[in-house]
Amino acid sequence: MTAVEKIQAWEALDSRGRPTVAARVVLDDGSEGVATVPSGASAGSHEAHELRDGGSRYAGRGVRTAVANITAVLAPRVVGLEPAEVDAALAAADSSASFTTVGANAVLAVSLAVHRAAAAAHGRSLARYLAGDDGPLLLPMPMVNILSGGAHAGGALDIQDFLAIPVGAASFAEAIEWSGAVRDTATRIALARGYGQAVLVADEGGLGLPLETNHAALELLIDAIEAAGYTPGAQVAIAIDVAATQFLRDGRYRFAREDRDLTSEQLVAEVGDWCDRFPIVSVEDVLAEDDWDGWRYATEVLGPRVELVGDDLFVTSPRLLGRGIGDGVANSVLVKVNQNGLVSGATDVIALARSAGYRTVVSARSGETEDSWLSDLSVGWRAGQIKVGSTHRSERTAKWNRLLELEACEDTVFAGPWPDGRPVKETA
Ligand code: PGA
Ligand code: ZN
To answer: What are the two backbone dihedrals, phi and then psi, of residue 207, each rounded to the nearest 5 degrees?
Structure first.
């Protein structure tokens, strides 16, 4: 049996140049694990608490307090424990529901680094260690950001993400190749249509184009899929992350660029209309985080047609996902480990979703690092789908590259192609 011998922590930088927490855990057999945590911009208000210092350093975003909490509060409780005991000890270290005192960023850095160290102690990849068996691992179907709006692109579009899903690809490598072709073709089309210098690379590596309407973004995406040589729907389908929490104003959903205010029902009808016209197979956060009545309606109307994913709605919380399952709300869950704070907590969400027939989409944050543990988690959990941004920007390619490495080096199967371009219900 190995036990935790030492924990070190420091302030690192994320892809937006903001501070984030990193930790290194050493076990008494010499195995070690290092991990860096990500950070969201369109974060849900019910997420586990990300502790920031305030004050003047880094515009108040410093994480020295969280780093100090690792060494002063968490390490004394964790040193001497076996890796499998650590997450429970971390949970007990902060009696608040969402790690308000210690900081979920502090907790997650330790949780991840311990899992990495434990995998190293077993001489296994983190993916294989998390799977806990010797069966084939599952490479997820990628959902790749092509056009970005909302909080990730200075409000260039109201809808946050327009993504390509290479549903017809037969391997993960082919899925990335097709996605990259669509991303590059979208750039060429944008330049040809005169966007010139306005072709900005947004926070997740997608194009930040100031298009007039959300509809125009969907049209450009279809044009890019076709011009890249793929059949829309059958080979490359579309996903959107509406991220509706971001544009709820006084009880109405505000499309600022179109100067329209919509009720929940009207927004659902609008998205339904897009689903009629475009091969959209997955819709995330179609309504805001606390609009449960609207979500019930949305699930009745859109649930039978598309994958309806709860991100801000469920915030990777077993309690909120349990409520959604009980209420028949959504049919899929986005899994962001830092919304929860613990690897084991996110693992519980995967298990709960699976038991209820909800699909699981593992996701990065808009503020990421070059760390690629997320890829191992998605494969080890056999989650079936992953969303980490575009094929541009190194903090994004780090995840794709790790998945390509796992495809080359581990015993894996790929989650695609999706029959009829639709998500497969069972991913386990
Ligand atoms: P965030 O966005 O990381 O900025 O919260 C990602 C998402 O909404 O899916
Ligand atoms: Zn989202």
So the answer is: -85, 130
